[in-house]
TrEMBL record:
SMART domains: WD40. Keywords: Cell projection, Cilium, Cytoplasm, Cytoskeleton, Flagellum, Repeat, WD repeat. Pfam families: WD40 (PF00400). It is found in: Cytoplasm, Cytoskeleton, Flagellum axoneme; Dynein axonemal particle. Its main location: cytoplasm. WD repeats lie at residues 521-553. The keyword Hydrolase does not apply. The keyword Ribonucleoprotein does not apply. This is Dynein axonemal intermediate chain 4. GO terms for molecular function: dynein heavy chain binding; dynein light chain binding. One of its GO terms (cellular component) is dynein axonemal particle. The gene is WDR78. GO terms for biological process: cilium movement.
Length: 640
């Protein structure tokens, strides 16, 4: 590019017929340079030779003053001049000016294309389109409208900032006389009232009241339907679906604010000027236990288990069954209700069982499957999308590994090799036996023994009690196996699960080992009620128990990192917040406590009083928008 700029700054001139003419080559397009390169050189050489043959003396260039040697003709004029192309190029190259800048003819082919110095624009008339029009509030000065505008401006200034703003004011009262007009069509003759004597006996009054009571009954009997017809209508699936939709619409009138809060429709955004986090819980609504049909079902039942649907956050399954053993209240049967947050007034699915229900769990992989554990050790799976269908599969009584109540159920993720099959699940009974069930092409579940807990012998790793017993007495356990209270799956390793026992230990087990545990850790002095892994770190987890404490642990470390304790009562449940890594929710018999590890480790940040109960359950659910976490609690009373 520098060579081309330097070349354009040079000028080549030739004297023709006594006049100096500019013969500097002009740039041409790169596409035609290769074809016109030799053509331009030959044309220039022929013109130069013609001028040399006509002139008698050798002309010199004016710019460089370099003489050009004359070319002698080899033949006469009559025969013409015969020169080869090499001789022409050699003759041209012999000149100083032409030989000095001859290599630039070769560089023309490698020069870049330069844009044209102008653009051709053709203007044609097109239809007129008005995109925007704004009326002007100004007028040209000196016009007829300008005088009126100036007059209005002077009056406005006089009334606002001039002397005219000080005006006298006075209060006065006025009353409009209202004349009531009555047309002739509604005018009536005034009625005359008078007193008359009458006698009514008691028999007449009795007969009159009896007729008034019998008339509506007879009318209703003529226009009422029989009980059998009403039962048939109630069993119609289309009628049930229409009634469910109508109940949702009516419930939205009463629970609209709670439903909007549950769906995170009123949340602060990043554009808000102020955003304050309040450590408080608001009651959205209560799910009151419905009136179950039957004679003994009218008793109030305890809420034994809760489970939120993983595919639809609006659905929650509630198991109504047995009270705690200390309450000394028994019920002969149980129920399972599937509630929807769109209709907190009535459940949308209802299943009845001849024994109390003790556990319930939705499948996280197939959200329409619901596993139900009963008080007699029976386990069954239902499809909630088909309410009138029987269970998908149930466990056989002859192959049951235990007859104790099922305390916990956890689904297991299926491997890629068996992706076509339904996911299996684990069931923990109160006597410490873990069974693995699989859904097969049969009305019965395929069950197998997975693990059996044993009593602790010796001193396990973990928390060591510091209490000193003066007169220690030996005691014998009533059973060989420990009691299983809860079952927790590892968040990362799908084949690892933990069992919480009444001895204050958690046993780490594997699906690949069916006869012994991998690791045992002592975490509390009393029973371990709940265990929850941190959503921010899979190696960090917390436990709570009947020794009034909440302890935070790290895998591989046998001593608690943090111990939280505030009230002298068992902590029934403790969970990590899904939106704040340092916030923990704890539930006991009377309160819901909120801890913030970043602010205070001695006392909870917030305490919310709830209905007092001997045993309280808690379940954590994430709203459909996945932005905030809500906590719902339930106790022996049929409210949540």
């Amino acid at each position: 590019e520098n060579a081309m700029i330097w070349r354009q700054s040079l000028e080549l001139r030739d004297i023709v017929r006594g006049k100096s003419i500019d013969v500097t080559p002009k740039l041409i397009d790169t596409d035609t340079r290769s074809t016109l390169r030799f053509r331009s050189i030959a044309t220039y050489a022929e013109d130069l030779i013609k001028q040399m043959t006509k002139s008698s003396s050798v002309q010199s260039f004016n710019s460089r003053r370099i003489s050009i040697s004359s070319v002698k003709a080899k033949s006469s004029t009559r025969l013409g001049l015969k020169l080869s192309l090499d001789e022409i190029i050699q003759a041209i190259g012999s000149s100083g000016s032409l030989h000095e800048y001859h290599h630039y003819y070769h560089e023309i082919t490698f020069a870049k294309r330069e844009p044209l110095p102008f653009i051709k624009v053709v203007l044609r008339k097109s239809p007129e389109f008005v995109l925007y029009h704004q009326n002007s509030f100004t007028v040209p000065k000196g016009s007829a409208e300008a005088e009126a505008v100036e007059h209005d401006n002077q009056i406005y200034d006089y009334l606002t900032i001039g002397k005219g703003k000080v005006r006298r004011r006075s209060d006065a009262e006025t009353q409009t006389v209202g004349v009531l007009m009555k047309p002739r069509t509604v005018s009536t003759i005034p009625k005359k009232f008078g007193e008359r004597a009458a006698y009514v006996s008691f028999f007449e009054m009795f007969d009159t009241y009896q007729q008034l009571l019998q008339t509506p009954t007879a009318f209703n009997e003529r226009h009422s339907l029989s009980t059998g017809v009403l039962d048939l209508i109630a069993k119609n699936p289309q009628f049930s679906y229409a009634a469910m939709v109508l109940e949702r619409i009516l419930a939205s009138n009463c629970y609209q604010q709670g439903q909007r809060r549950y769906r995170n429709m009123n949340i602060p955004t990043k554009m808000d000027k102020y955003a304050e986090y309040k450590y408080s819980l608001n009651l959205l609504y209560r799910l009151i236990q419905p009136k179950f049909q039957g004679g003994l079902d009218k008793r109030r039942k305890a809420i034994a288990a809760l489970s939120f649907c993983h595919g639809n956050g609006d659905l929650i399954a509630v198991a109504y069954g047995f009270y705690s053993d200390a309450s000394k209240v028994t019920v002969p049967n149980g129920n399972v209700c599937v509630w929807s947050m769109k209709n907190p007034q009535n459940p949308e699915r209802h299943y009845s069982y001849p024994v109390p229900v003790s556990a319930v769990e939705f499948s996280p992989f197939l959200p329409f499957l619901l596993a139900i554990g009963l008080y007699d050790g029976t386990v069954q799976v239902r499809n909630i999308t088909k309410p009138d269908y029987p269970p998908v599969a149930i466990s056989q009584r002859s192959v049951l590994l235990s007859c104790e109540p099922v305390t916990a159920i956890q689904w297991i993720r299926q491997t890629q090799e068996n992706a076509a099959e339904a996911d299996p699940f684990l069931a923990l009974t109160r006597d410490g036996k873990v069974a693995k069930f699989r859904i097969i092409a049969s009305p019965y579940l395929l069950g197998m023994r997975q693990m059996e807990l044993l009593r602790i012998e010796g001193n396990p790793e973990g928390f060591q009690s510091k209490n000193i017993v003066m007169n220690e007495e030996k005691s014998l356990d009533s059973g060989r196996s420990a009691s299983g209270l809860h079952l927790v799956m590892h968040p990362v390793q799908s084949d690892i699960y933990y069992i919480l026992t009444d001895e204050g230990c958690i046993q780490k087990c594997s699906l690949n080992h069916t006869h012994h545990y991998l690791e045992m850790l002592k975490v509390h002095e009393g029973s371990v009620n709940h265990m929850d892994f941190s959503p921010w770190s899979p190696k960090l987890f917390l436990t709570c128990g009947n020794d009034w404490t909440i302890r935070i642990w790290l895998e591989g470390i046998f001593q608690p990192l943090i111990t939280l304790s505030d009230r002298y009562m068992p902590v029934h449940c403790a969970m990590w917040s899904r939106t704040h890594s340092t916030v923990i929710i704890a539930v006991n018999r009377e309160t819901v406590d909120m801890w913030d590890l970043r602010r205070n480790l001695l006392d909870p940040i917030s305490t919310i009083n709830i209905d007092s109960s001997f045993h309280t359950l808690a379940k954590q659910a994430t709203a459909p928008s996945n932005e905030s976490t809500f906590y719902r609690y339930s106790n022996e009373r049929p409210t949540m």
